[in-house]
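One-letter codes give the sequence; the fold follows as tokens. Both lines appear below.
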Amino acid sequence: MPTRADAWALLTEWTASDALRRHGLAVEAAVAWYGERRFGIAGADLETWRCAGLLHDFDYERYPETHPLCGAEELRSRGYPEEVVEAVLGHGDHTGVPRTSLLAKTVYACDEMTGFVIAVAYVRPNRSLDEVDVRSVAKKMRDKGFARQVPRDQLEKGAVELGVPFDEHVANVIEGLKTVRGELGL
């Protein structure tokens, strides 16, 4: 099984954009927070979760039209477990791949939510996660002009699939993001 360090090397090899690398770090942090604090996952299993969160978009720059199908094949060729491959394939609705594992459901639930929470932080006076709470995220969700590219239905569907009340999910993602606030500049 490749390590988290291997996953980071793969992400940086295939992804030139700092923004997309930071997105990978954000999703990794939220997924790891869930794995460790909500589901009691530790050790090598937690490292697997970290890899899935970090790598979910690693092939996007190279293969935007077929993302994440090409990436899934690369992960298999490098020895990543099918659990990671399924999570990468299922992180968006466009692939039609069902999310059957808890890991896949967690990556899906955290992917768009991390981006949305970060967007909320960016418009706060100090650009800090300390200024973001469930109420501020809910308010921005109602503003259809804010972060238009983020599918609101996916934000809600992720929490439902994970079996976590929406407000609690938002709070959990905020807490997960705080673990990498320095890397994110928030």
Residues 121 and 130 are 8 Å apart (CA to CA). Residues 4-184 form a domain with the Hypothetical protein af1432 fold (CATH 1.10.3210).
